[in-house]
Amino acid sequence: MVAPSQIFRSAAASTAKSWSSTLKLPKSAFPPRPSSSPDLLRQCTDDLYAWQQSPERKTTGSFVFHDGPPYANGSLHIGHALNKVLKDLICRFQVAQGKRVQYIPGWDCHGLPIEVKALQALGNPDRDNLSPVEVRAAARRLAERTVEEQKEGFRKWAIMGDWDSAYKTMEKGFETRQLGVFKEMVEKGLIYRQFKPVYWSPSSGTALAEAELEYDDNHRSTTAYVSFPITKLPASLAGRVDITKLGALIWTTTPWTLPANRAIAVHSDMEYSVVEMSRPTATGDRPSQFLIGKARFDALQQTLKTEFKVLVDAIPGSELAGQVEYANPLEPDQLSAQPIIHADFVSDASGSGLVHLAPGHGMDDYNVCRSLGINAFAPVDDKGCFTKEALPGQAFLIAGLPVQGEGSKAILELLKAMPRDPLIAVEDITHKYPIDWRTKKPVIIRATEQWFADVEGIKDGALEALEDVEFHPKSGKARLESFVRGRSQWCVSRQRAWGVPIPALYEKTENGSFKAHMTGSSIEHIMKVIEQRGIDAWWTDAEDEPAWIPEGLNNGSSFIRGKDTMDVWFDSGTAWTLLDARPGQPVADVFLEGTDQHRGWFQSSLLTHIAHQSVKNNNGTTHAAKMLAPFKTLITHGFTLDQDGRKMSKSLGNTISPSQIMDGSLLPPLKFKKKKQKGENNNNQGKETFDAMGPDALRLWVASSDYTKDVVIGQPVLAAVNQALHKYRVTFKWLLGVLADFDPSAPPTPISAGQQTTVPNRWTLIDAIALHQLSRTSSAVHAAYAAHDFHRGTAQLARYTALDLSAFYFETLKDRVYAGTEADRRGAQVVLHRVFQELLDMLAPVCPLLVGEVWRYAPEKVREAAAGGRPGWRVWRPFVVETAEGVNGEGEVERAVEVLGRAGDAVKAAQEEARKEKLMGGGLECEVVLRLPPGAAVDGGALVDGMVGEDLAAVFVVSGVEIVGGGDDVAAGEVEGEQPWVFRAPFELPGVSGQAVAEVRPARKPKCPRCWRYVAPSPDVLCGRCEDVVKASE
Which DSSP helix (H) or strand (E) runs through 716? Predict the structure, then answer.
């Protein structure tokens, strides 16, 4: 009988024999690029959301994510993608934690941006030519169309949610709930009407809230120094100055407000001086005297380019406040005496030390004047033009002129033409100035009759509620608190047609004016009429339609309905009414929006929710018990910038569409090497194909970005994202191929997820290292996702895939799973199966389409044996690995990883030197000698305990490793036998003094024709291991 070894050696010597059929090479049909199957998208979005909501599903509790509604007024942009994908990442992670997630998307449908765009679409941007009903109809059509367009786009991004129940602030049910909150606030005394200054947009024709402002850092204004003639002095100054020449010098950046001047402010604790300067006139120099802040003496001399003569050096401000009067030079005949008063906000940091007060055009001015009974006056109309009241007797000079242009120039010309020439100096400055967030045009401050919410009455409760909120990033807490603390009122009325009406009735009085009437009962009546007739009836019914008047007001008086609508921040700020109450905890677990929403939606939601919880005491004021914010966690993200750090805008041409990220068109087109076939035409030549990685590319970009700061996006960033996705696809393709014949139900038992796993003796140290690396990565990624730090989690995952898997574990396994024994292969597959499952779980929240596609290609037995079902649907707990007694523990594994890494780098360095000399190609063509420093054990214990040369050969992907150590001159010793060449590279061992050396030399044995290792006994003969494997398979 012929020995088996002789049979295999004889067969190996035959060139007709091919050993490839005996190898277990990976086989998978998984494609290199993603599928565009609508069925796959539906499965990982709509199907998943419906399944996780089903009552039959066992859960660990509920998770409510409340969607801040985007405006329904335009196409989706990259900011939308950042926002919506972040929300989806959080929701998907919570599903994987066993939670029943509620996420109902919404849209903000009212307000100025939509109204303006709707009017533009009609080709009639002037609303004065249209009825409110026509404006509302056009705005509604635009909003409805935009909602559907945006919804379609969001769903293409694989955003999971209850799309069929999506809310719109223009829906009847929403408007009813909003009016209910407003009614509550009226009943609690939190809504009032007052004539006071508000931000007013002449370009939009409406009042604006602070949240509707932006700021132009380069706004140009004409400033003026004006002298107001003093008409009355205290006795202490009598005889010391010439009152006919004396004026109070003020500085203003808004000369157009001078007709509305009602007082001048000084500070009682400051000192003031009377100075004299010569001014050139047509008849020669004329002395003028000014009251100025003493501390402003030098600065004013420099600004006015003159020298002052001091007439009175130091006058306490307390002697001026309430004792000095002056005349407004723009007042007819200058007969009205106006006071100089004290104001805390006056300082000596700028200007003249005296402040011109126009209580109709400034909130600080209004407050200080109101406390003294000085009424506000604002002779400016809705379009920002002077009214005839601005200059009584000479109205024709400025009436109808826009205050921020011709009107301001006209005021300065009038002052300059006056006999005493009160205009002392004019200067243009560049400064920060508020503009309308929509029209980008300057706003003004103008006193009008408006409805306000009393924030002062609920502020303490709001700040108290924020103490229980988790903020991410932490800085969001101080930012939101500062906005709440700095706010005492909220102007909730707007002078536009497209919105929810403020349900106020106005009674016509005998003198022709109107008195506002609004109570809880009147609002309740109006809500019932709206329920019957629809909200548009507020505008379509006759102005005096009696159906809108409650019975108690039918006393013969004439009432009309108001025309104001609510601030859109009140609309969206009451969206929490959609959520079910959860006793003792906020109605939502998470709110997430851009950082600009600290003064917008976050604040309006907080204030309305606190107002809802407030109660009214016997004194008619509100007090707060234990208050809850509507959110448990508040997350904010930054804005998107181009790759140069610039804000994206159409004018700069640097905008990026989310679809461009998905279709790969922002990256260079792909290049294919294709030979032209006979008869083929050139029709497709020049047609570019891009590296389209689909929605997962958009999602991975978001997940990889540190959204707590402004997020940069450009070609380099997107190229890295696509490269990472390709890496994941290659990794999964290899895993699918290796696991193609794997049966998890066969022994040994596969490693389970979400539980402690013991490393048994049947696995090698390499397997133990792989399991520990997987455990460490799984825990880190899970912790990062739980903390909403997705960029940290995806970075860990990318590093793990590239280094721990591809560059280390997979390389060491290839010989074992392709050519090794069945037992060795099975042991490796068990570990790879756990890696495969955990990798899917870690990627599922970020790349659901990739994970879903991989799962479709997974072997049937792998799918059937999956504990908990498919990835993204099943519960994911961090994979935890422990070690049995006598088996490699975490400390030893960590040391092994460090040692192998250092030794491996040295081996690669020596190999590169050999390749430079063209002495070797692949790593299997060489052997390695590891020379340990003095004192290290010869058996290799100082390197890695329990790892023999064959194991190290697999790690370094070489044909053999020999470990030598002992003598003091070890590093310089020679390898036994003569070698054609040797290359060396040093490295250090942790905890061992001296230097180790990695030597690379040519393999001494012939190449095995099956496994390609240079370990065969003779040419064209199988190595011992391959001989045994082939024999076992026969």
Answer: helix 715-738
The helix/strand/coil state of 466 is helix
Q: Residue 659 is encoded by which pair of tokens?
A: 């679809």
From CA 171, how far away is CA 31, in angstroms rounded? 45
Q: What is the pLDDT of residues 746-792, one digit of tens each?
A: 876 556 555 455 555 457 888 989 999 999 999 999 999 999 999 99
Nearest to 891 by CA among 952, 821, 970, 945: 945
Buried b (16+ CB within 10 A) or exposed e, 55-73: eeeebeeebbbbbbbbbbb
pLDDT digits (tens, 9 = 90+) for 959-972: 999 988 754 444 44
Candidates 342, 320, 336, 304; CA nearest to 227 is 304
Which superfamily is assigned to 208-445 in CATH? Valyl/Leucyl/Isoleucyl-tRNA synthetase, editing domain (3.90.740.10)
pLDDT in tens, 443-472: 999 999 999 999 998 999 999 999 999 999
**Average pLDDT for 708-733:** 95
| Cα–Cα distance measured from residue 3 to residue 12, given in angstroms and rounded to the nearest whole number | 15
**In this structure, CATH architecture of domain 701-888:** Orthogonal Bundle (1.10)
Residue 706's SS3 state is coil
| CA dist., res. 800 & res. 784, Å (int) | 15
| Backbone torsion region of residue 711, taken as left when φ is above 0, otherwise alpha when ψ lies between -120 and 50, otherwise beta | beta
Report, as an integer, the average pLDDT of 422-428: 91
Q: Which CATH homologous superfamily contains domain 892-1009?
A: Class I aminoacyl-tRNA synthetases (RS) (3.30.2320.20)
Residues 389-415 pLDDT 10s = 998 878 788 899 999 989 999 999 999
pTM as predicted = 0.87
Give the pLDDT of residue 151. 97
- Domain limits of the chain? 208-445, 701-888, 892-1009
Fold: same for 208-445 and 701-888:
no
Q: How far apart are CA 407 and CA 381, in angstroms?
A: 13
Contacts of 6 (CB under 8 A, 6+ apart): none
End-to-end CA distance of the chain: 17
Could you tell me if 821 and 1028 are in contact, meaning their C-beta atoms sit under 8 angstroms apart? yes
What are 330-357's pLDDT values in tens digits?
A: 886 656 789 999 999 999 988 999 999 9
Nearest to 489 by CA among 458, 447, 445, 453: 453
Both tokens of 442, joined, read 């300057």
pLDDT tops 80 at residue 510 = no
Q: Which residues contact 310 (CB under 8 A, 6 or more apart)?
A: 273, 274, 275, 297
